[in-house]
Amino acid sequence: MPSRTLAALAAALMLAALPPAHAAPAAAVRYALSVTAHDPASPPRVHVALEFSGEADGETELILPQAWGGEEHLWRVVRDLAVEGGGARLEPGADSARRVLRHAPGAALRVRYEVVQDRAGAPRATGRNPYRPVLQPGFVHLLGSTIFVRPGLDDATLVSFAADSVPAGWSFASDLEHAGPRHPLALGSLFECVIVAGDFRIVRRGPAGRGLRVALRGEWPFSDAEFADRLERIVRAHRAFWRERDEPFLVTVLPLAADPGVYSLGGTGLSDAFAFFATGATDAASMSRVLAHEHLHAWIPNRIGRLSEGANEAGDYWFSEGFTDFYTFRLLVRDGLWSLDDYARELNELLSRHARSPVREAPNARIASDFWSNADVRDLPYRRGFLLAMAWDHRLRAASGGRRDLDDVMLDLRRAWRQGRGRAAPLATEALAAALRRAGLDPTPDLERHIVRGEPMALPADVFGPGAPIETFQSSEYAPGFDVAATQAAQGVVAGVDPAGPAHAAGLRNGMRIVKRESGSPGNPDVELVYLVEDGGVERRIRYLPRGAQRFPTQRLALHPAGDTAARERVRRIAAGER
User: Fold this and answer.
1) 460 located within any domain
2) How far apart (Å, rounded) are the C-alpha atoms in residues 256 and 129?
3) pLDDT of residue 379
4) Which of 37, 56, 69, 407 would be 44's cystine partner, CB 3.0–4.6 Å?
5) What letters, b where the CB count within 10 A reaches 16 and e where it falls short, cover 148-170?
6) Is residue 190 assigned to a domain?
7) Signal peptide span per the entry (predicted)?
């Protein structure tokens, strides 16, 4: 198919945005991306070029994608790496993700390579988000951390980006388009991006150049407009809380294929975008929580402080993920996108899952080491941080007679970050501890007990005030009664049925094929599982409560009856953080 040029349009828009008598900072590295598709039935091809001046000593390091988001060996997506200019030649580097360029001192260099999809097939629900490059007939989905080769320069080095071409009739969207004279693009920011092209539908909300864009493809149970409207409410609520002006923000939505009965919902938050991945049957209400969580990452921790580096980063996720979840819940209630019953249901689900976690008492060191390799460990910092935020919010309100709460601490962190711009960003967890102490709360004992050592944490019974207690009861373990992973690997053919479990008692047997799951909440033993299965050519329904023999002490919020509107409103105001 013929290509259309975007570079001229992008240049014109950037010139139009220039303030009078000011010039855009010069880019030290210039990136260009092109997408070509000559056969509609074949995957497109993606090429990247970067131009920059080599080091004065005649030796420049090139760094290929390495590991990100649990994905490894990302250098495999880079093919046909080549360099031109200054007599340059490529030599092996210290490892598979590094190359060394030998060239004339300070030479103008041009590096070219192709990005490929290194895993077969369209993106599927596998329990992990598809972060690696996706190049499929009719579309591409790319994340900056997984596709860009970079020279070994400082992260603050200014760069430019242009989409040189995409096939005629294709849409294109990237948060890299948000860069401009007032928001120059740094080399480190280049990797915090998403790029989509193809049969994506682009929906816009808010002021031109400072509003929201949503890029979707596939079919969903809601319209594009309904989804964009819902997301715009979330974005506006967050900006109101943080007292921020409108800024451009991009959401991409990629549907995942799935086996019968398999549902997946997830995303990754970037600095001014997030990439969303879900199976097509996902409802808008379920998406709201993920959308709100990912959008809040624009502030927590990105505009508060930095996380620990390298392997220690996951050790800070109790703050970056747990506090983000706490504010996701709070602001969804405050904005009216969640009712009090929605909040109670989600909170009780969180409390129930945390109580039954097999790694509930794991120390924080295990989270730092096993976050990407163990699903139970991966969930732990979200829940621990959420409970810690709720407990600290309660203590701040109680100590101040309701005049102060955790919101004041978070806004204090945001102000400190603004005032410190131009200096090195503080470690977010240290900045939080300092802000809590300024508010009269010493977090050290709680952090040592519940984060570092992993001791279980219980919410105060009166965290929502008198008359709406947090109750403690004994809950059952979640026991689906068969090997879910093996069944998924066998394309829905049931495997590993426990003869002493609830599934066997309900009639499920090895060798049956799951057509679809009609009901159930994986991880929740109190929601009935209903499977439509094929058994010897005949379809039948298997239904049961997935309860095992083990019991766990579990907390839950006991709401007032629906008719007690005054009491319920008091609880709603605390949940929403309203004074």
Assistant:
1) yes
2) 9
3) 94
4) 37
5) bbbbebeeebbbbbbbbbbbeeb
6) no
7) 1-23
**For residue 447, what are the domain limits?**
310-468+561-576
Residue 398 near residue 386 (C-beta atoms within 8 A) = no
| CA atoms of 174 and 161, how far apart (whole Å) | 10
CATH number of residue 433's parent domain: 1.10.390
Give 409's pLDDT tier (boundaries 50, 70, 90): very high
Q: Are residues 60 and 38 in the same domain?
A: yes
> Which CATH number fits the domain that encloses residue 229?
1.10.390.10
Q: What share of the chain has pLDDT > 70, as a percent?
A: 94
Looking at the structure, do residues 225 and 177 belong to the same domain, yes or no?
no
Task: For residue 569, give both structure tokens.
Answer: 């409103």
> How many C-beta atoms surround the C-beta of residue 283 within 10 A?
12
Sequence-ordered list of residues with C-beta below 8 angstroms from that of 279, at least 6 positions apart, any chain = 125, 255, 256, 257, 258, 262, 263, 264, 265
Identity at 232, one-letter amino acid code = E
Q: pLDDT at residue 1 above 50?
A: no
The answer to whether 148 and 48 have CB atoms below 8 angstroms apart is yes
Neighbouring C-beta atoms of residue 546, cutoff 10 Å = 25
Q: Does some domain include residue 99?
A: yes
Task: Name which of 293, 452, 434 is nearest 388 in CA terms.
Answer: 452
Peptide bond into 301 cis (omega under 30): yes
Check: CB of residue 571 under 8 Å from CB of residue 559.
yes
The whole-angstrom separation of Cα 543 and Cα 21 is 71
Tokens of 242: 């943080």
Number of structural domains (the chain) is: 4
What CATH number did the domain enclosing 113 receive? 2.60.40
- What DSSP string runs through 363-420? -HHHHHHHTTT-HHHHHHHHHHHHHHHHHHHHHHHHHHTTS--HHHHHHHHHHHHHHT
- In the predicted structure, residue 17 carries a pLDDT above the cut 80: no
Q: Which of 298, 327, 361 is the last residue of a domain?
A: 298
- pLDDT band of residue 2 (cuts 50, 70, 90) is very low
Residue 318: both structure tokens together:
């109790």
More confident residue, 522 or 68: 68
Q: Which of 298, 331, 347 is the last residue of a domain?
A: 298
Among the residues of 297-363, which ranges form H helices?
Answer: 317-320, 322-334, 340-356
The strand pair at 249-256 and 212-216 is best described as: parallel
Say what the pTM is.
0.77
Whether the pLDDT of residue 577 is over 60: the answer is yes
**Euclidean distance between CA atoms 49 and 298, whole angstroms:** 29
Among 20-24, 131-135, 414-418, the range scoring the smallest mean pLDDT is 20-24
* 3-class DSSP assignment, residue 435: helix
- Close Cβ partners of 95 (under 8 Å, ≥ 6 residues apart): none
Sheet holding 529-535: strands in order across? 513-519, 529-535, 538-544
